[in-house]
Amino acid sequence: MDFVTISDIETAAGRIHGTAVRTPLLRQLWVPGEFWLKPESLQPIGAFKIRGAYNAIAALSDAERERGVVAYSSGNHAQAVAYAAREFGIPAVIVVPDVTPRLKVEATLRWGAEVREVPIAERESAAYAIMRERGLTLIPPFDHPDVIAGQGTAGLEIAEDLPEVDTVLVPVSGGGFASGVGTAIKAKCPDAKVYGVEPELAGDTAASLRAGERVSWPVADRARTIADGLRAEPSELTFAHLERVLDGIITVTEDEIRDTVRALALQGRLVTEPSGATAPAAYLHHADELPGGRTVAIVSGGNIDPKMLADLLA
Amino acid sequence: MDFVTISDIETAAGRIHGTAVRTPLLRQLWVPGEFWLKPESLQPIGAFKIRGAYNAIAALSDAERERGVVAYSSGNHAQAVAYAAREFGIPAVIVVPDVTPRLKVEATLRWGAEVREVPIAERESAAYAIMRERGLTLIPPFDHPDVIAGQGTAGLEIAEDLPEVDTVLVPVSGGGFASGVGTAIKAKCPDAKVYGVEPELAGDTAASLRAGERVSWPVADRARTIADGLRAEPSELTFAHLERVLDGIITVTEDEIRDTVRALALQGRLVTEPSGATAPAAYLHHADELPGGRTVAIVSGGNIDPKMLADLLA
Hints:
2 copies of one chain form a homodimer.
Chain A: H1 6-16, E1 26-27, E2 35-39, H2 49-58, H3 62-67, E3 69-72, H4 76-88, E4 92-97, H5 102-109, E5 114-118, H6 123-134, E6 137-138, H7 145-161, E7 167-171, H8 176-188, E8 193-199, H9 204-211, H10 219-222, H11 236-245, E9 248-252, H12 254-266, H13 274-285, E10 295-299, H14 306-313
Parallel strand pairs in A: 2-10, 3-4, 3-6, 4-5, 7-8, 7-10, 8-9
Antiparallel strand pairs in A: 1-2
């Protein structure tokens, strides 16, 4: 297994400069202790995914890149690939399930991508077919070293801005973000602890780390959580990284996630999606399971349905 | 008249480093044109006021500072002075009208300040009495060169992050923020235009600039706007700055402000107060009155009443 290195992440940081926002650390004074948020919700597409997608496309050869890219996703990864492709001026095809809400399809179309709507079961095969037919490169949402290295740039920024950080909280889904951030933190701040955070209803990674091997949960089970960005499972590659870089997993409930979306809006002045509030929820509701000290929680994204946001604030 | 200089603002920038957040410029891709927000709503107290308050306290002699400071305000300036005083470990007395909502009093008490509630008409005289009795220094909300220089650091950051900026939009109330930001922009980016933005219902500065002298509006008139942070009027000092540095004033309606609070939450993922949404409202609703080009609007603050936010999003 080839692990992503801090040098890969530093290279990625040079590439994404000027495209991804260098998000600040925001000290939160309304909670006890020394606690900061890193608001990836303020990236151009509203989520950290732009870091990995842009780095993966930047890492292609000129010839590959000019032919274009393809991705299958209905969420933040779709928008990230579409946005990054537009930045490079290259074609992008995004394959989405035909049940995808219109709003999400339009958000992807906005960046000039070609959107193909297919039955949900054919999503992956359709993407591979398009890839072969048109000579496009597939940009996966997490299972790729260049994607992991790109996501890791968020960890590098934390290490630069707060070298004396004690604890970093990062959400876990497919595991690319936690793999990259954990790799950067462990390289730059070897004494700091890195915790993954999962919804209880999509707690496959906690189960897998306990078992020492990947334990798969049925898709229908993982789909129960309100945190719709945290329903994927680690790949072999990301799981190997997580076993190396995570000091533990914190599990949060649906009510804790909802409460945190509300608190981050009213106290932190940030609009977050449920997946984005998951890591902060670990600090707000499970401080007793954490080592304490200077703690940073990453807000992974802010693409929340307007009605859900209004309901959570009412 | 002594004008604040770019050198004063650069000195202030050195002082506030590590206390005020260096807020990023956030490109907004959901509107036409090249448009960025500078989210001062993400400062520790939720507003730009920390810049001026901290700089003014930092500029005191050691002896003055140790005796402590006093301010009269029920809004973001109260919190800014209380917070800055705590950072220096010095006493702060905040004089507030006895009709101030409990939530705002508590927000100030949180930072360890002593809060004195007095009848609204006695607010200013009470502050001066406390100042004399206890040898405290009064930190005014805008009518002071050190406050103006501190607020100007936001403009300096814009010039550093986007040296090719064409247009800067900044809200105007007492005029300290617009004076400082305008001074910094005109010094660093002499070709850029700086526009003040006011609510139509508190449009005294537009009237004053047209008249070439300060035109006062009755307090009751200015109190009509939902933008409760924009109800003050410029002083002689700030008005002289505004005449020098502003290229014009854009006037926005109450509905445009409300619409912009909603849009910034749903599209920009930022929680803003009505005053904070006022400068962005000028870009969203009055682009035809602006010169165009690369435009930055400053979001001055995010301290919105939770019920108002929920209502605007529903």
